[in-house]
Amino acid sequence: MIIGINAAAAVKQPRTGVEEYTYQLIKHLTMLPEARGHRFLLYLPSEALAKEGFDFSLPNNFEIKVLYWPLPILWTQIRLVWEMLWRKPDILLIPVHILPFFSPKNSVVVEHGLEYEYFPEYYSALFRWYLCWSTKRSAKKAQRIIAVSKKTKQDLMKFYGCKPEKIEVVHHGVSFCHSEAVGRGISREPRGALAERGECGSRICERSFASLRMTNSKPYILYLGRIETKKNIQGILAAYKILREKYGVPHQLVIAGGKGFGYEAFQLDLEGVLETGYVSEEEKWRFLSGADLFLFPSFCEGFGLPVLEAQAAGVPVVTSYNSSLPEIAGEGAVFVNPENPGQIAEAVYKIFEDRQFRDKIVAAGYENVKIFSWEKCARETLNVITMLKK
Asked: How far out from the chain centre does Cα 262 lie?
């Protein structure tokens, strides 16, 4: 069977949510014994991306197919469409939900979340319209839909009338990065799964923690993700103020991630707050392994991969009780109302003050993260694909 994959997201830099997903999915498909009986075509828009995008070797049954296109836009809807018209594969996999105007009958799309349906005000009008239109069309035209969580499946049924039998839930995996964390001026070994699993894809963490602009020895609370309104950055800042003024917590607040919608409204130049900007894969694991707590009270998530990464690093997690987050975090987190900064601050303080409670959360997080793997994600995705030809 010939399986085509829109691989453009896998080679995009910097890699964040859907880019990391696509990269890890393809990487782990190449490792599956059951994938050897199929031929995979990885569609990319340029030869430069083809050479630089994959830092792992591709087996003989994986072929990069460069579809040249001179413009930075419309590659999917013009150049990939042209390829589908003349040389379509048996099955087309779209790891990001945007299906080409013309695609094979046996097409599979991956839906990562419908947050824009719950919080339309956190998106520009044009972008929200595009998300609604493209998701609705893909949900109708695709032969199968892969939802990254049960909550996302429910949302597809609720907002777009998708039949449940058309949707398969395949969770993301989680990567692990082994390194000696150097934080707060002292060396210490990574905790929990980070220390025991000892994996970091094909990358090795070699930078000292000092290179991450941690300029003093204070402990810190970490937020990792895009700095945007729907992630509840304002609520994080409000909770941090309560932690300092009411509870006298000495920790810094480290906010790591790229700029998103609503960034200009956040007052990040506050005492004790360190904004790092986008961090690399190596830097991310340095920050995680050195944090005393991971704070992620997002308003809505289709999956919430940073929560799993924090659990893998042996860091206690405080996150929201909404959307997919309870499904993904399991018992390895303290759940709060994201609209209540006082409750967020109280949960953080309880973890700091109650060592036994903290250790219980960390242990539960470690157990929870064991059920997620990119190998499992790749295998279940391949099963969805191959079932279409039976």
From this structure: 20
Orientation of helix 17-29 relative to helix 374-387, angle to 10°: 80
Matching fold, domains 2-173+374-387 and 181-369: yes
Structure-derived torsion over alpha carbons of residues 282, 236, 339, 160, reported in degrees to the nearest 10? -30
The ranges assigned to domains in the chain are 2-173+374-387, 181-369
Mean of all residue pLDDT scores within the chain: 87
pLDDT confidence of residue 390: 58
**Separation CA 105–CA 88 (nearest Å):** 10
Under CATH, which number does the domain 181-369 receive?
3.40.50.2000
- Is the Cβ–Cβ distance between 292 and 216 less than 8 Å? no
Of 343, 350, 328, which is closest to residue 249 (Cα–Cα)?
350
CATH 3.40.50.300 fits 2-173+374-387, yes or no: no
DSSP letters, 57-99, are PPPTTEEEEE---SSSS-IIIIIIHHHHHHS--SEEEESSS--
E strands in 265-377 = 273-277, 293-296, 317-320, 334-336
On whether the pTM is more than 0.70, the answer is yes
| Assigned token pair, 190 | 């990574």
